Amino acid sequence: MGYAGSRIMCDADSHIMETFDWLKSYADPDIRDSLPGLKLGGAGRMAEKAIGKAQAARLDETIVKEQRANIIGGSKGWAAYGAFDKDDRRKALDDLGFARQLVFSTFAQTQFASEKDAKLRYGGARAHNRAMGDFCAGDTRLMGIAVVPLDTPELAVEEIRNAAKFGNKAVWINASPAGGRSPGHSDLDPVWRTMVELGLPFMLHIGGGTRVMDKAYDNNGLPRPTDWLGGGENLRVKDYMTISFAAQMFLSAMVFDCVFERFAGLKGGAIELGAGWVPHYLRSLDAGQRMFKKTDPQVGTLSLRASDYIRRQVRFTPFPGEDVGHMIRDAGEELFLFSSDYPHPEGGKDPVRKFDETLQGLSAAATERFYRRNFEDMMGIAA
Question: For 121-140, what is each residue's pLDDT tens digit?
Answer without folding.
Answer: 999 999 999 999 999 999 99
